[in-house]
Each structure stands twice: as C-alpha cells, then as structure tokens.
Design goal:
There is one protein chain. The protein contains ten helices and 14 strands. The protein has 359 residues and is of the alpha/beta class. Strands 1, 2, 3, 4, 5 and 8 form a six-stranded mixed β-sheet that branches. Strands 11-10-9-12-14-13 form a six-stranded mixed β-sheet, sandwiched between helices.
Length: 359
C-alpha cells in the first residue's frame, strides 16, 4: 500500500508514559511495521523530537504522503484545539502545549487528538463489538439493532467513551465519558476509579489476603491465585475481583440508565472478566434492595455476551404477540473487546481522521 492508493494514509500513535508506538493506516489496515520510541516523559524537547522521528519513519515506511495524523493522548486536554495541559504520566506536556499545531506545522497535515477511551469506543463501534452484535442479530432473524455503545477500559485507570448513533459524543468541554469520576458504588466518599483499576484489585487483595507476598502481587498473579493456578489466598483473590465487578456494575447501571446502549470492556483487567463478570451482572440486574417488591436497578435486562447460554438468549428473537408484532422486551448486553484496546484505539483514530477529511 503506497501513497498512490486512493485511500488516505493516516498516521497514528499509542502514547504511553514509557513509550510512543507509531503506526500508519490505510483503508483501516496497518501499513508497514510499528515504530516504538521512548516517550521521554520528563523532557519536552526530546519527547517532541521522538514524535517527529516516529511519525516520519512510519510515513516513509508506508511509501506515501500522509493525509492526516490522528491519535490518543492522555488528558486533561482541550481536544478540539489539540492543546494539552497537566498530564500525570507525561509531565513534559503540562501547562498548555499546542501539540496539534506543532505537529501540523511540522508535517503539513491536519492533526486530530482525542482521549484514548473515546477512540477505543469508536473503534469497537466501527469494527468491533457493535457490528458483530448487529450481524448476529440479523443472522438470528431478530429485528433488534443497536446504534449506541459505551466503551470502558480497565487498567491503570478507569477510562471510557460513548458512541451515539455512530457519532462520538464529545461534550461541550471535550469531557464526555470521564467515567472515572463516577461515584464509587460501595464507598461513596471516593470515585469509581478507586474500585475499577489495577490498584483497586491489588489493594483489595493486599488488605484481605493471608499471603506473605500479597503486596508484591500483580492483577495477573491475583487472577491466577483466584483460579488456583498459583499459591496464595484464593478466597481473597476472588473477593478482590468480585468487588471490582460490583463497582463496575454500579457504574454501568448509571451509564446504561442515561445512554441505553451496549457496553464493551477492554484494557488489561478485561482478561480476567470471568472473575468479575458474575458480580457485575448481579449488580446491574438486581433490585435496589432485598425488600419485597424493590425497584429493579434497570428497565433493561443486561446479558453477558461472554457466556454462551446468556448470549444465545440475547440473540434469540423476541416472541410475537397475538397481533403478530414482536413483544416489548428491553435488553442490552456487556461484552469484552473484540479488537483489543490498542487496535480499537488505532481504528478509532483512523475513523476520526477519515470523517474529518470527508467533512
């Protein structure tokens, strides 16, 4: 794939606190190899130099002239103007750095910067969970189709993005989908990220486990302990992931109440979904209390697409009424990323660039 293609070449970036990972995409597919360079998180001049080098190298390797640069960068930021402010894991960009203008002047193309949670949701809506669900509904003969998607990422932090009717919801201040600031469902004095993150799992395990190595355990270790593949406190490990599931379920219930869409979960912790999904589903599908006749948390019933029997019930067409019309049966579902967070973010960035070029 070269610059002679009639499809635009778009340069993308996965920006982490340690490394910058660059790629070039054409027609939604990567062209050439990924280039990885140090982020130089504390030195703005060296970090910018690596941005110039990385984008230049992937453009050259793709054999063509890029039409746009589009990528995710940690916030807070004025994403519409491409200006970065105080960035926790990339302090070199604190204080109002007009990165979009800097890169646009260097490469002579439009530069679009977004939140990684937003681009994750858009990628899954474009080529991941959302089209898969609608394709399976069509194959099953169901009239139901979904247009809205809530994307959530679980890792160092708790990120999110929202796609409504195929469009990324940005908000008036570029702050839609800041799900980490939802209230913690079990501890109302803190935000949800304190219950839905790597530190939440490791902290819960360390506090409860009779394990002399508890403070050294990673979430991967704790998952293996919960599954009894590694020596440790299996009960405390299972409880740590169950607590994450309850807090995540509470957040999802609030989001679905307002946005009424499918939910897709990605990020490193999503690999342990079998450990937290039961608690998540219990939270979203249960009433507010154990009292008889208590109000259900949601009007919709939420299905787990990773459970074959649950997925089968979700895709099954609704029964017909006496008049031959499908019976009203509000439902939605939660599934794990079909693309992986990195690919979804890249495809989301590409979709943003194509939309901007077309407009």
């Amino acid at each position: 794939m070269t610059g002679n293609s009639d499809k635009p070449l778009v340069l993308t970036l996965d920006a982490g606190g340690t490394n910058f990972s660059f790629a070039a995409l054409c027609d939604g597919k990567q062209v050439g190899d990924t280039v990885v360079l140090p982020a130089e998180a504390n030195d703005r001049e060296r970090s910018l130099a690596n941005l110039f080098e990385g984008f230049g190298r992937v453009a050259d390797a793709a054999g063509g002239s890029p039409r746009a640069i589009s990528f995710a960068f940690p916030g807070p930021a004025d994403y519409r103007r491409g200006v970065l402010y105080n960035v926790g894991n990339l302090p070199a960009y604190a204080g109002g750095v007009p990165l979009a203008d800097i890169l646009s002047e260097r490469f002579g193309v439009p530069v679009l910067i977004n939140n990684d949670g937003d681009l994750f949701a858009l990628g899954e809506a474009t080529a991941g969970l959302l089209p898969e669900v609608n394709s399976k509904l069509e194959a099953a003969g169901s009239p139901q189709r979904y247009r809205n998607l809530i994307g959530l990422t679980l890792g160092t932090g708790f990120g999110g993005g929202i796609v409504l009717n195929g469009e990324l919801l940005e908000g008036d201040n570029s702050l839609s989908g800041e799900v980490w600031l939802l209230r913690h469902g079990l501890e109302p004095d803190v935000n949800a990220e304190e219950g839905v993150s790597i530190r939440a799992v490791t902290g819960a395990y360390t506090a409860a486990a009779s394990d002399p190595k508890a403070g050294e355990r990673t979430p991967h270790d704790i998952a293996r302990i919960a599954e009894e593949e590694l020596e440790g406190d299996a009960m405390a490990a299972r409880e740590a992931f169950a607590k994450l599931g309850l807090v995540l379920g509470d957040a999802i219930a609030n989001l679905v109440t307002v946005l009424d869409g499918l939910v897709v979960i990605g990020g490193g912790l999503s690999k342990s979904h079998e450990l937290f999904m039961p608690a998540l589903l219990k939270m979203v599908n249960s009433p507010y209390s154990d009292q008889p006749g208590a109000q259900p948390r949601l009007v919709q019933h939420v299905y787990n697409l990773e459970d074959p029997s649950e997925a089968e019930r979700f895709y099954q067409p609704p029964p017909l009424s006496a008049s031959g019309e499908p019976e009203y049966h509000p439902r939605t579902a939660v599934g794990i990323s079909r693309l992986g967070a990195n690919e979804a973010v890249g495809l989301g960035a590409y979709a943003v660039a194509i939309a901007a070029l077309e407009n």
